[in-house]
Amino acid sequence: MSSTEAVVTEPRAGQKLRVEHLGLVYERDGESIAALEDINLDVSEGEFICIVGPSGCGKSTLLNVLAGFLPSTSGSVTIDGESVNGPDPRRILVFQERGVFPWLTVEGNIGFGLSKLPRAQRDERIAHYVQTVRLEGFEHTYPSDLSGGMKQRLQVARALAVNPDILYLDEPFGALDSITRVMMRGELLRIWQSERRTIIFVTHDIDEAVQLADRVVVLSSRPARIEDIITIDIQHPRNISSPRYLELRDELLKQIGLAYEV
Amino acid sequence: MNSMTKPRAWESFFWPAVAAGLLLAVWHYSVVWTGTKVFPSPLSVEKAVAELLQRHVLWADIGDSLRRVAFGFGAAVVVGVPLGLWLGWRPAANQVVNPVLQILRPISPIAWIPVAIIFFGVGDRAAIFLIFLGSFFPIVVACVSGVSSVPPVMRSAGRNFGLSTPQLLMRVVFPAALPQILVGVRIALGIAWLVVVAAEMIAVDSGLGYLVIDSRNSGKRYDLVVAAMLMIGIIGLALDLSFRRLERIKSVRWGFRNAA
Fold first, then answer.
1. Do A95 and B156 lie within an 8 Å CB cutoff?
2. Which chain A residue is nearest to residue B256, measuring alpha carbons?
3. What's the angle, vertex CA A118, arms to CA A115 and CA A119, rounded to 5?
4. CATH code assigned at B210
5. Domains located in chain A, CATH noted
6. Per-residue model confidence as pLDDT tens digits over A139-187
7. Which stretches does DSSP call E strand in chain B?
8. Cα B130 to the chain's mean position, in Å?
């Protein structure tokens, strides 16, 4: 249903990202394998989108195409009407692991994309984002002395520091323990609400998607197609035992084809 | 209380001293009991060191050896690191050059001595060339593998922030590969110190290697031979230990797991 729903030709007001008939076919051992097929999606300015789907379905591939790291083989991705041809500091991808630079301190990492700014302005920006992700006191610490959650916060801070209008997050909390993961969701929502960036967030965690997103995009298994787009019509802060929350969560589980009981 | 986990301060000096003392004792009594007239005892080696110091040749020889290492090894770093970075960055170029590198690499620099003498004659430059050869290959190989093992995520992150290729090499690839490069450079320094001694035995008439061979040739002074060997060992250790300090620098320490 979504593949017809998303084909809108008139640019809407406040529209940020538009994906039209996006496809990706790659060659392996002389065989062509379809990874993405006819993906159509419109994302508004400031929207929080989660992309879920079975593992290995091509969620990360899709994100890499949106971020300009992988060229698509058909269709188009446009941001503010401008087509995406490569990585760009206006949209930063946050990786699951190993994204921070271990040879730089917290300050050095956050300031990485700011080398063109005058010193005073850069320091100010760094200080602001150290505070935003609550790493005060760790400015001169190297990543090897930070916990997994702190490293991911650092990666988000480094991304936000260059003032991007879109933040792509590729299972950013996937390698964290479950308690840290829940806390990080809260942190990310807080940051999203104060900074108002467009966020596209890939996850394999249904609860994460229902807790965070304005809309959840459900992908099919390979080749990835959009199965459904579910609007999460619950105000933040969300009560995760409310009937509506559970209803949406069950709907998503069913979409992905998971059983209700383990 | 914590003696179970951590040896007490005096123990970390005491036991190694005991081991060294035992070794000296074994050496001393082996010389005494076998009644050898050729091989020196520790005491005569000690006198030999004092003699070398008095004659002021030791410092000059040490200086000559270190100077040759500095030039040969220094040139290997200056040429090898950029070349290795480039080859690591361009796998296509590496594929072209790699077979040649792999054939040249296992050839001992000692085997190059005749070639070095044809090229440079008997003298400093031949020795420096040999040291260069000995340290060049481990440096190139370490750089290539260092660069190719930089996680793709880091390169992507660098490009995402709008870096050009030279910037990416300088600001991401080089620092990410640096711990591995340092390991290669340290191995190369060890090899350079091995090679200088061998080269000095044949290609020049000064330096610690020359001191070893000259002490034997002019009057079979094995006390001086062993004294020179001892100096070679101590200086080699000192070079290695001082290089290891680099691994403690904070911006590379992340790459060395066992460094505190």
1. yes
2. A144
3. 85
4. 1.10.3720.10
5. 15-90+166-256 (3.40.50.300), 101-163 (no CATH)
6. 999 999 999 999 999 999 999 999 999 999 999 998 888 888 888 898 8
7. none
8. 13
